Here is the input.
Amino acid sequence: MRVAIAGAGEVGRSIARELLENGHEVLLIDQQPSAISSLDDAALDRCNVVVAATGDDKVNLVVALLAKTEYGVPRVVARVNNPGNEWLYNESWGVDVAVSTPRLLSALVEEAVSVGDLVRLMTFGHSEASLVELTMPADAPLAGKQVGAIEWPADAALVAILREGRVLVPQREDPLQPGDELFFVTTEDVEGDLERLFSVG
Here is the structure.
């Protein structure tokens, strides 16, 4: 996969290192032409993904818009620096996935201290769907039930189970266990229904 990353700061370089270790072709773009590369030289039309990872929300939005509209990049991921600007990071600005570091950190803090509560980790910019997490309480009514035997709300899909440090892809016959961290892709309107499935009493 060919990935262009706009912003050669700490965040951009960290993303680039991870992607290179996973065998992807990576191009770093920086506003200083002498640093790495410029948008004109980047051949974005050959990229599968563009990541707008600068420390400036205005720059990230412009990069996202240009990548999507001028170069036809299939997938655009953009970093949100100021949570107050998050509402701008949507389809109309060419953003498929917005990553808000403050929101992600606060969600991770919530996730670390909350058992039985649904925590929204991220929202996919091109749809109404979100990635949510719930740590199953010891006395949850679904403890011991098989994944395939549970009637999940419409528009909610269990996509991963984190159990004892291992990531499991849920199979129909897998029983849920207390302490499981369950990851769902769902829509906001059914989050309450999903949370009620795990509530006690």
In short: The longest strand covers residues 156-163. Residues 57-69 form the longest helix (13 residues).
